[in-house]
Amino acid sequence: MNYDGDVIYLQKRVKELEEKVEQLRLSRRVLMNLIEKLEKEKTSFQTRLERENKKLLHTNYRYARWLLCKNRQIAELESKLQERQPGNSAN
User: Rounded CA gap, 82 and 25, in Å?
Assistant: First the structure.
């Protein structure tokens, strides 16, 4: 009788462990899917940030060129004003 009881106990224990293994496999699949989703989101976000950064660099470059042009214009206008001021030896 003891032998039969041990066999039944071990069979139940094997079934429990098999169920736990199946649950672990399912949990692993879920976790792997979540990790894959997070990696895709991270890659997508990084790509978007890189595009935005490139656009901002281009915009900043254009703005810096515009500022240089305006500074040159201001310097030219100031130079012309100084030339036309009364008491200037050029007149």
Answer: 84
CA torsion through residues 72, 74, 80, 82, sign:
negative
Closest CA to 52 of 60, 63, 62: 60
11-23 burial by CB neighbour count: b if 16+ within 10 A, else e? eeeeeeeeeeeee
Phi, psi of 58 (to 5 degrees): -65, -45
Instruction: Find all residues with CB under 8 Å of 82, minimum gap 6, and list them.
Output: 88
Element housing 9 (H / E): helix 2-84
The per-residue pLDDT for range 13-22, each reduced to its tens digit, is 999 999 999 9
* Cα distance between residue 59 and residue 14, in whole Å: 67
Rounded CA-CA distance 71/56 in Å is: 22
- How much is the pTM? 0.61
Could you tell me the end-to-end alpha-carbon distance of the chain, in angstroms, rounded to an integer?
128
